[in-house]
């Protein structure tokens, strides 16, 4: 239900997929290091990516950008008391994202901002459907986020959603690109 949960899940999935891709490439390296032809004999261009590399790249672009967004949204608009779960959901994700940017060799492309935007659009659609169906938060509150209060001010809620999708996410993706460029 909550955006940090979605984002932490995508960050976890990205990390697991990155590990799996790394292990697969490491295991294949002995075979392909001395061969021009990959396993199975098919001829593949040396600069082409497999489907799992592409999936990893999409997850990387989405999880890193969204981690920065969630941390900023929380500390700017929704800050509550500092408890371990809050630290885990709203600080650890960005720390892991920065570490990933500087340690991994995954490139960041500006055009890839479409992936976090698509992810956020999916969350926004889910949020609106959840709200319209009468969904509530942990304490039974109808409004999960004050910025997106469709009950009392639907125009402002829509404006904030549009700003998030088409201003905030591109900004954080450009920040991700800039941090990656520092390497």
If you had to describe this structure to a student in words, what would you say it looks like?
With 183 residues, the protein is mainly alpha-helical. It has one domain (3-181). The protein is 68% helix and 0% strand. The protein is built from five helices and no strands. Helix 1 packs parallel to helix 3 and helix 2 crosses helix 5 (154-181). The relative contact order is 0.14. The chain crosses the membrane at residues 57-77, 113-133, 157-179. Keywords: Membrane, Transmembrane, Transmembrane helix. InterPro entries: Rost (IPR049352).
SS-based structural class? mainly alpha
Low-confidence stretches: none
**pLDDT averaged residue by residue:** 87
Distance linking N and C termini: 35 Å
Number of domains: 1
Please trace the helix and strand order, writing H or E for each element. Answer: HHHHH
Task: Outline the secondary-structure elements.
Layout: H1 3-32, H2 51-77, H3 84-103, H4 114-132, H5 154-181
Helix pairs in contact: 1-2, 1-3, 2-3, 2-4, 2-5, 4-5
Question: Outline of this structure?
Answer:
Keywords: Membrane, Transmembrane, Transmembrane helix. This protein is mostly helical.
Highlighted features:
183 residues; mainly alpha; 0% strand
């Amino acid at each position: 239900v909550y955006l940090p949960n979605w984002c932490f899940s995508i960050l976890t999935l990205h990390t697991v997929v990155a590990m799996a891709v790394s292990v697969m490439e490491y295991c294949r390296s002995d075979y392909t290091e001395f061969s021009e032809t990959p396993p199975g004999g098919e001829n593949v261009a040396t600069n082409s990516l497999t489907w799992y590399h592409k999936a990893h790249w999409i997850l990387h672009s989405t999880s890193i950008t969204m981690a920065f967004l969630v941390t900023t949204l929380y500390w700017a608009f929704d800050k509550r008391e500092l408890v371990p779960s809050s630290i885990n959901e709203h600080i650890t994700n960005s720390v892991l994202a920065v570490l990933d940017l500087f340690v991994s060799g995954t490139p960041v492309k500006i055009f890839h901002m479409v992936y976090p935007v698509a992810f956020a659009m999916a969350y926004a659609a889910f949020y609106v459907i959840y709200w319209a169906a009468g969904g509530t938060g942990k304490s039974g509150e109808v409004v999960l986020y004050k910025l997106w209060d469709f009950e009392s001010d639907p125009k402002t809620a829509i404006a904030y959603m549009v700003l998030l999708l088409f201003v905030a996410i591109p900004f954080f993706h450009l920040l991700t690109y800039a941090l990656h460029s520092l390497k």
